[in-house]
Amino acid sequence: MSARPRTLGASVLLGLLAAVVTGPTGDSDEPLRAAWDSIADVRIVLFLGLAVALWLVLVLGPRLRGLVAAVTAPPRRRLTAATLTMTARRSVAAAGRRGRTVAVGGGLLAVAVVAPLVVSTAAQQSMVNDIGIYALLALGLNVVVGYAGLLDLGYIAFFAIGAYATAYFSSSTAMPWHAPFVLNPFFVFPIALILAALAGVVLGAPTLRLRGDYLAIVTLGFGEIIHLVANNADGITGGARGAFGVPHLSVHLAGVDYAWGIDPLPYYYLLLVIVVGVMVAFGRLERSRIGRSWAAIREDEIAAEATGVATLRMKLLAFALGASVSGFAGVLFASKQFFNPQSFSLQASFFVVAVVIFGGMGSRLGVVVGAVVLQGLAFYLRDKVQPADRYIYFGAVIVVMMIFRPQGLVPSRRRRREIELSEAGVGAADSLGSATPTVVRP
Amino acid sequence: MGFLDQFWQLSVDGLMVGSLYAVIALGYTLVYGVLQLINFAHSEVFMLGSFGGLFAARALLPGDGSVPGGAGSIALVAVGLGAGAACGGLAAFTLERVAYRPLRRRAAPRLAYLISAIGASLFAVNLAGKEFGRQNVDLPDLFHNGTVFRLFGAAVSTQTLVIFAVAVAMLVGLDRLVAGTRLGQGIRAVAQDADTAVLMGVNVERIIIVTFVVGGLLAGAGGFLYAMTFNASYSMGFVPGVKAFTAAVLGGIGNVRGAMLGGLLLGLVESYGGYLFQASYKDVIAFGVLVAILMIRPSGLLGERLGRAA
Amino acid sequence: MRRRPFVGAVALAAVVALSATACGSSGGGSSSGKETITIGFQGVLSGDNQQLGLNALYGIRTAVSEVNADASSPFELKLVESDDGGSPDQGPTAAQKLIDNSKVVAVVGPMFSGATKASEPAYTQAGLLSVSPSATNPSLTKLGFRTFYRVIAPDTVQGKAAADYLSDVLKARKVFSLDDKSDYGTGLSAALEAELKARGVALTHDGINPTKDYTSEATKIIAAAPDVLYYSGYYAELALLSKALKEKGFTGKIVSGDGSLDPQYVAQAGKAAAEGTYLTCPCGDANSDPNAAAFVASFKKVNNGAKPGTYSGEAYDATMALADVFKKLGKGADRESVLKAFGSVNLQGITKTVTFEPSGEVKGSNVFIYQVKNGSISVLGNTANLIRS
Amino acid sequence: MGAGFGRVFGGLGASSTSGGGVGSAVPGARRPGPGEDAAADLVVEARDLCLRFGGVTSLDGVSLRQRRGEILAVIGPNGAGKTSLFNCLTGAYRPQHGTVTFWPTPDRPAQLVGRRPHAITRLGVARTFQNIRLFPALTALENVQVGIEMRQRYGPLSAVLGLPSARRAERDGVRRALELLDLVGLAHRAHEVAASLPYGEQRRLEIARALGTGPSLLLLDEPAAGTNPAEKRDLAGLIGRIAATGMSVLLIEHDMGLVMSLATSVAVLNFGRVIACGTPAEVQRDPAVIEAYLGVGDDGPDAGGATGKELR
């Protein structure tokens, strides 16, 4: 019974916090003033009311649950022999599921095609810059994080490489340093792809032997180095001034002349095609021997190695593949609009990781949904809250999400199994191991 | 004018900043040692601690902008350290409760903790910005007698001396705590093998909380020291956080003495590097050194066991 | 923990509900029967530089409230804010947000040069006027953005004048030019250095990304023993740098640019460290100019006691210039007419007289020199006059 | 200590598979007599392996030979260095001293020390683990596929484009994997998640996965640990069937019944040294072996090994 007052306490604290978050803005001369003002205000009644309501729901929850569970999400499966057998049966029914997947995919694709037509141009712009580009980045990082189980915190560096490669090859004015010839950005796609993949190999070859967290910090360092060099090398990249004047994409082929421009919509559809293409390609990869090798490495690296999987080479492959997608996205971004080194900050790298985990690592659809939801949330909050406070809500949503759905929005089947198993104490959910001392498992 | 002429001065500068990195790095290393988890929100613990200490010290300052000097200033530093530590500890406790514990209960994959930490960090940074304003907040120099002595020609001010001394005292104190007390024994036991530790009657949940709080106390006190010279602001945590994390890895994450060594070394490398090259390349140099060292010694300078540290 | 998913759903719902309650609190409806004209603001309202954005936003709000309080004004102004985080990534979306809102007839912003370069193509395409209070990159008016105006002089103007002042008045023979590696800082330091070089002044250049730790940089500066340190960057960093230099006993003069002309500089550096610092600005300073006392007073009133800071005055002037145009246009001001009329605006603002070259550049900017004296920033005068005397 | 030595060697009664000749593990380690058994068709030969961890010596000059097609069992008390030996053979540990030569085919010797584990597996040495290490969330079929596919050559591009060669390889892989599952008696479990299989089946799945890599030497680390008598019988039969195909099997096992019934020769390890080797019958009589087993106190060889306690 002592849990109830504690739950009430927590609810009230939450209510107070919400009051402070939504309350007035303070300053450093009277540091506690703003918090006090938001609590000593009539509004507090509303928040306390909400807190009590929350408490009631929590306390009465178990009883209400039966009713609500049927309507809302099905309860999380417990790992039992029965579940596992069920999982197995589901696997047997793979063929039937494939059909359903195609149907769902087609439906989602239709939504993706129609969606931009019913929203404002600003939203379209955001669908390109924020959602589309980040979905592409997340798909690439997903290969590294989700498939191979490696943590890359400097992923945006490859994006930068792609963008600067575009400026180098496709414009003679964008950067002080440029190619002696000018290429249509379309031709830069393969170049950037290869350059970024090479960069991935160069970075990965010596570092992939490092354990998970060391790899994380080395990649983080690499990302920062690229970012700082881009910002400092005035004579080469143009430094903080950025690269202005990279031409838009255009096609002049067999009578077809089309040029992309400022309008975001054509870019959206181009991105959509690319994203879907990448999803399909990585889907095939995932179901091939390569995908199975990655899964093996993720689940038990030692066993994978003993089974003949060239773990280092497979990780390097993942790294290079992920990097190349990032470089690809960089070309698209650079040809779409002006950029400067700010676009390649450490925070951007973190954000891509957040999109991948939030969406559900290892799941192609998941990471795209992650980009849609997170960036959509950011866009939604633009008008709803003070811009300066936007990231308070954003941060809160991420924490709440991770608490209640650590596997992400749309986890992949394989990953879900891994996580269920890891929760039951079998195997590891990623090659980084579990953060949980095994003893605290319930 | 040459580098060698400034060598000692740069060393003093580097050691002062490095000692602060070391203090923050301990928080990363302790939590990593116990949970094998990078506590990415630790930088915000540091930020909140520094605000706490700074506001406490400012509240006690006379309104006319003067500083008491001498013993009065020492007392102010003590108050600031205490308040900073308290805020840092509280922040770390809350962080563990809200952003980590629920995940631990669910045995979430490790990356989920990372994202939860990033979310918590975004929340804390922007809430602090909202509550305390987005301007840097200054604490008047508590000591105004400038240089107290010269070390090989390098000027050492009272402020520098105080910061370095307090930081080193905290480092030594923590090292003793981990090496020589029952609590430290518990921490080391959990770090080495949580399963066995629980069989030996160690309360793992408690050790985890304590580890977070100890890291928070240090980061909070370190935050006040940082704010004494470098001002405080809502976004102040990120950079020293990344640096301290780098320092922890450099020394061998999970290793208490490694974090100290890594912090001091990183401070020195930055100081020398910033002098020898354009200062904006100093992070490039710092990260370059990190990568180079990890290539040669993949588990950091001193290896990585918290348990082995003592 | 069996009931977790349910709790999760509730908690998520709660968060959404709470954030929903928080919204829509801003924006007062107009009570009088006056016509409402909507203007937009695109600036940096999130991220590390948001204080600069707030400075500008508060300036605009001050102008808006003054216009709306003025009974003789035939219209009321309504402000729509759009945050670009100061980054080019978010620029196009932020701009589009304002473009989409058909009521918006003119925009104050964008603030940073990078975001401007990313956003301006969209404004140009939409024919929506944008008046930047703070983007100083010299190239901006040469990139073919026909909708771009700025009420602040480009870096070249300030850099040249500052260099003249350093060598003629401060008699600097050796200058340490430090920039913050931002678009603004590198632009200003490049202009300054070009002029100093032409005058044969010995130069040391260094760049340092904004940080809090200037200890070793101070050592480096002192080791170079310059007569003058010119910092191209913002006040928050200059304050820390000044503190570090003071502690290490730097004896040269510290000079900085418009990014540091903010009372917060003195507050954050402490009076002792800030004392004597020179600041150059192609602008009048509201806080020290007695003519702007009314502005300062109304600024404080509108913005809960905040003082005008860097770019507040410019943003105010930009808004007032817009209001001036609206007044002239009378009823039915739309994007096209506003854009056409804005080039010929002539208004005595608090930072300068606002008139424009055809390129969108503000005309004949005088660069003023300020100095921190007794803990407050006071004006020394116009560089041209100071050099002559 | 309760286990009497006699009972240890009590025999299981399963049919013994006779294949190679007399075991040729070399006692006395240091001097593998030159020319001794020179004509023998060896599959693997370890010479003078030394492995130390800090101050602990795990292998102290172990030499061992195995003939092609032979089932060689390595026995010894806990901590005698059996698994360390395995790890040296498979590249998981790198011995400080000594060599391991492996003949994938009689005319092509390869040095194993210094190679990475996957390279050794590619040469044809497959292993299982003492504490089963399957890929728990993959299905049984996928587990075996991983082993088979590591020999396939098609790259990411072929996979993405779905080239015929890739599809063919994929189909072949599945077919081969099903065959192997059938061999170990798990064909009906092909699409079940590995972690959901009962313990004994997991053991067999691990063997199938190892066989998938196409080895000429199969290393089994305590395959019978933790299995019940029925499972154990099945297992013995399975190992017998595998050996009957001509596969060389190196076996670590505590269960003496299993060892005595299966092995063609036995090597006994104690304190990181080979103290005896020979046919099961010879070893059984060796005084040094009896001494070793009787002298280890409470941790003695858990006779039947059926409890699987010493697994941990």
From TrEMBL, chain A:
<dbReference type="Pfam" id="PF02653">
    <property type="entry name" value="BPD_transp_2"/>
</dbReference>
<feature type="transmembrane region" description="Helical">
    <location>
        <begin position="316"/>
        <end position="334"/>
    </location>
</feature>
<feature type="transmembrane region" description="Helical">
    <location>
        <begin position="391"/>
        <end position="410"/>
    </location>
</feature>
<dbReference type="InterPro" id="IPR043428">
    <property type="entry name" value="LivM-like"/>
</dbReference>
<feature type="transmembrane region" description="Helical">
    <location>
        <begin position="38"/>
        <end position="60"/>
    </location>
</feature>
<feature type="transmembrane region" description="Helical">
    <location>
        <begin position="212"/>
        <end position="230"/>
    </location>
</feature>
<feature type="transmembrane region" description="Helical">
    <location>
        <begin position="155"/>
        <end position="174"/>
    </location>
</feature>
<dbReference type="InterPro" id="IPR001851">
    <property type="entry name" value="ABC_transp_permease"/>
</dbReference>
<keyword id="KW-0812">Transmembrane</keyword>
<dbReference type="GO" id="GO:0005886">
    <property type="term" value="C:plasma membrane"/>
</dbReference>
<feature type="transmembrane region" description="Helical">
    <location>
        <begin position="99"/>
        <end position="119"/>
    </location>
</feature>
<feature type="transmembrane region" description="Helical">
    <location>
        <begin position="346"/>
        <end position="379"/>
    </location>
</feature>
Automatic annotation (TrEMBL), chain B:
<comment type="similarity">
    <text>Belongs to the binding-protein-dependent transport system permease family. LivHM subfamily.</text>
</comment>
<keyword id="KW-0813">Transport</keyword>
<keyword id="KW-0029">Amino-acid transport</keyword>
<feature type="transmembrane region" description="Helical">
    <location>
        <begin position="107"/>
        <end position="128"/>
    </location>
</feature>
<dbReference type="GO" id="GO:0042941">
    <property type="term" value="P:D-alanine transmembrane transport"/>
</dbReference>
<keyword id="KW-0997">Cell inner membrane</keyword>
<feature type="transmembrane region" description="Helical">
    <location>
        <begin position="20"/>
        <end position="38"/>
    </location>
</feature>
<dbReference type="GO" id="GO:1903806">
    <property type="term" value="P:L-isoleucine import across plasma membrane"/>
</dbReference>
<dbReference type="GO" id="GO:0015188">
    <property type="term" value="F:L-isoleucine transmembrane transporter activity"/>
</dbReference>
<dbReference type="Pfam" id="PF02653">
    <property type="entry name" value="BPD_transp_2"/>
</dbReference>
<keyword id="KW-0472">Membrane</keyword>
<dbReference type="GO" id="GO:0015808">
    <property type="term" value="P:L-alanine transport"/>
</dbReference>
Automatic annotation (TrEMBL), chain C:
<comment type="similarity">
    <text>Belongs to the leucine-binding protein family.</text>
</comment>
<keyword id="KW-0732">Signal</keyword>
<feature type="domain" description="Leucine-binding protein">
    <location>
        <begin position="36"/>
        <end position="375"/>
    </location>
</feature>
<dbReference type="Pfam" id="PF13458">
    <property type="entry name" value="Peripla_BP_6"/>
</dbReference>
<dbReference type="InterPro" id="IPR028081">
    <property type="entry name" value="Leu-bd"/>
</dbReference>
<protein>
    <submittedName>
        <fullName>Amino acid/amide ABC transporter substrate-binding protein, HAAT family</fullName>
    </submittedName>
</protein>
<dbReference type="InterPro" id="IPR028082">
    <property type="entry name" value="Peripla_BP_I"/>
</dbReference>
<feature type="signal peptide">
    <location>
        <begin position="1"/>
        <end position="22"/>
    </location>
</feature>
UniProtKB/TrEMBL annotation, chain D:
<dbReference type="GO" id="GO:0005524">
    <property type="term" value="F:ATP binding"/>
</dbReference>
<dbReference type="Pfam" id="PF12399">
    <property type="entry name" value="BCA_ABC_TP_C"/>
</dbReference>
<feature type="domain" description="ABC transporter">
    <location>
        <begin position="44"/>
        <end position="296"/>
    </location>
</feature>
<dbReference type="GO" id="GO:0005886">
    <property type="term" value="C:plasma membrane"/>
</dbReference>
<dbReference type="InterPro" id="IPR027417">
    <property type="entry name" value="P-loop_NTPase"/>
</dbReference>
<dbReference type="InterPro" id="IPR003439">
    <property type="entry name" value="ABC_transporter-like_ATP-bd"/>
</dbReference>
<keyword id="KW-0813">Transport</keyword>
<dbReference type="InterPro" id="IPR003593">
    <property type="entry name" value="AAA+_ATPase"/>
</dbReference>
<keyword id="KW-0067">ATP-binding</keyword>
<protein>
    <submittedName>
        <fullName>Leucine/isoleucine/valine transporter subunit ATP-binding component of ABC superfamily</fullName>
    </submittedName>
</protein>
<dbReference type="InterPro" id="IPR051120">
    <property type="entry name" value="ABC_AA/LPS_Transport"/>
</dbReference>
<dbReference type="GO" id="GO:0016887">
    <property type="term" value="F:ATP hydrolysis activity"/>
</dbReference>
